[in-house]
Amino acid sequence: MTALFFSAFITLFVVIDPPGCAPIYAGLTKGATAAERRNMAIRASGIALVILLVFALFGEDLLGALHIELDSFRIAGGLMLFWIAFEMVFEKRTQRREDRAQKVAATPEVEDVSVFPMAIPMLAGPGAIAAIMLLMNEARGLQQDLVVLAALAAVLAITMIALMAAGPIMRLFGDKVEAAITRVLGVLLSALAAQYVIDGLRNSFSI
After folding, report:
1. Average pLDDT of the segment spanning 70-81
2. pTM as predicted
């Protein structure tokens, strides 16, 4: 169970990427008070948790309704996660997030960023949805399901703390350290994504 928790935790941590979200959040909430930043961080994490829980609990039924095999989703999800990993290693993902944040910041009437762009799509984006569904499909039994959900809750709790402490974190580590961490996490995610694809292909073509 411990190995499953850490595997799920690392996968979700890499995909949701709290270190990468923190500087974006700091830029989006630059004019807000400390209380407003704290409240928006809590709301963003809570909304993301609800969205990911829905896909974790009912994602398999959704696939069944669409007549999609689990191994097909495993392959597609692995490819999607691999693309995210590629963007992390070459800093494409960070640039895209910064561009999106600048567009939101340039719109004066947008004040509360907890729903968009923080909860969706930065925290509960396609990659995180694919990851939680893959992890729940890999889990066997209620106990393992709860372990995966506990890992999700832990990652989002860390994300919430990172968002609330975004300003001090940026002053402490700086852009270079954050970029290095993102690249290392991207390499780990690429290996996990490759394993999903391998497992899906093995099961699909097994006799």
Report:
1. 80
2. 0.74
The count of domains in the chain is 1
Instruction: Give burial (CB, 10 Å; 0-12/13-18/19+) of 205.
Output: exposed
Residue span of the structural domain in which 95 resides: 2-204
pLDDT tens digit string along 135-181?
998 888 899 999 999 999 999 999 999 999 887 766 676 667 767 77
7-30 pLDDT, tens digit each: 999 999 988 988 878 877 887 787
Amino acid (1-letter code) at residue 22: A
Token pair recorded at residue 193: 């994504």
From residue 108, give the alpha-carbon distance in Å to each of 43, 103, 104, 112, 113. 21, 10, 8, 11, 12
